[in-house]
Amino acid sequence: MNQAVQDSGIEDIFEKVKKQQRLSFEDGVRLYQSNNLLALGSIANIVREKKNGNKAYYIYNQHINYSNICVNLCRFCAFGKDREDPAAYEMTIEKIVEKIKERIDEPVSEVHIVGGLNPDLPYSYYLDMLKEIKKIRPSIHIQAFTVVEIAHFAHLAEKPVETVIEDLKEAGLGSIPGGGAEVFSTRIREKLCPKKLSSEEWLNTAKIAHKAGLRSNATILYGHIETYEERIEHLMALRNAQDETGGFLTFIPLAFHPRNTDLASLSPTTGFEDLKNIAVARLMLDNFDHIKAYWVMIGPKLAQVALSFGADDIDGTVLEEKITHMAGAETSQALTRNELRRVIREAGREPVERDTLYNEVPKV
Ligand code: V47
């Protein structure tokens, strides 16, 4: 037996993982309850290496947050603002186009676009945004609009989600980012984000997108008031949805940043918890190919360690991240391609540049 696992109290789970047996709710809770991080990590690393070998993925991407005006105003969010707030903003399509043009000479393969639920922007704004970006950079993959935004568009346009997804696809949408899932528990949603769509709606919208041929990501926002049981219920709901559609590309555990939020009295997550969440996600989500350690939220140093605790991806160059930085993130706004490669290489992994759909980008 793997030395780290001996006498860890989770040897039986190790045996299940070796036999590729699906872990149960109770197994998941026990993994979270275990403080034997090395045992947890080494079991997760077995799965990580079986699925992705020694590769660690990164992407050359750009983030655009088109507006922070939001009708939901979730208690964990420092980004969303009321329309009347002096810090509220919305970008014109021209401004967004300018941001794409600013980086037209760089090998950006993906633009990641999300924003608040703005009550004033018309449905046509979102379709025009996609079309104008494609006009000036036709080969770029647009990963945009969480399923929460897509459900909001359906409401705005008074159209079924299916039709909205077809419209967005036709305008140039390539895939959907994983935000807005938070924690699926009704208790948490009532306390922290009562206006946000329900977990059933989040999952159903994602499934509709998958059935229409769009891939999407999934997240959990951990480290606030949720219990281990609620985290595992969340992971199991995603695992069930993935069994149904196979449409999820990657899972990203998002570490809660409390500063400037209604929950500012809570402490930020610790490195121990961050690694545990990566490892448990890798073990529970047996039908997800990828687990991302988002360096913006946990820092490049811990993202390196996460590459041996279940993660196989650290996201990308990013540039201009607002959601985490407004909540007090102390990480930088961007990493260069060389910095990403060095971070991965020094963690003993092989850096592989990918596109959004995990196709390898030929080396330049
Ligand atoms: O939906 C909000 C979360 C999400 C805070 O799909 C917070 O590849 C921490 O989903 N502290 C947006 N998190 C970011 C996101 C994402 C990021 C990178 C890659 C991908 C992907 C997706 O951030 C929100 C919410 O769940 N969030 N406030 C906060 N204070």
Structural descriptors:
single chain, 364 residues, TIM Barrel, three-stranded parallel β-sheet, 10 strands, binds ligand V47
Describe the structure concisely for a colleague:
The protein contains 13 helices and ten strands. The protein has a single domain (54-353), classed as Aldolase class I (TIM Barrel), CATH 3.20.20.70. The protein has helices spanning 11-18, 25-33, 37-52, 93-102, 123-136, 147-157, 161-171, 186-192, 199-211, 228-245, 271-284, 295-306, 337-346, and strands spanning 55-59, 61-65, 110-114, 141-144, 173-176, 215-222, 248-255, 290-291, 313-316, 350-354.
- Give average pLDDT, whole number: 96
- CATH homologous superfamily? Aldolase class I
Strand order of the largest sheet: 2-3-4-5-6-7-8
Our count of helices gives 13
Total domain modules: 1
The assigned CATH architecture is: Alpha-Beta Barrel
Low-confidence spans: none
CATH class: Alpha Beta
**What is the CA-CA span between the terminal residues?**
42 Å
Residues in helices, as a percent range: 40-55%
Q: How many β-strand runs? A: 10
Small-molecule binders: ligand V47
Radius of gyration: 20 Å
Portion of residues in beta strands equals: 5-15%
Largest β sheet strand count, sense and barrel closure: 7 strands, parallel
Derived structural class: alpha/beta
Gross morphology is globular
Q: Enter the CATH topology name.
A: TIM Barrel
Instruction: Write the H/E string, N to C.
Output: HHHEEHEHEHHEHHEHEHEHEHE
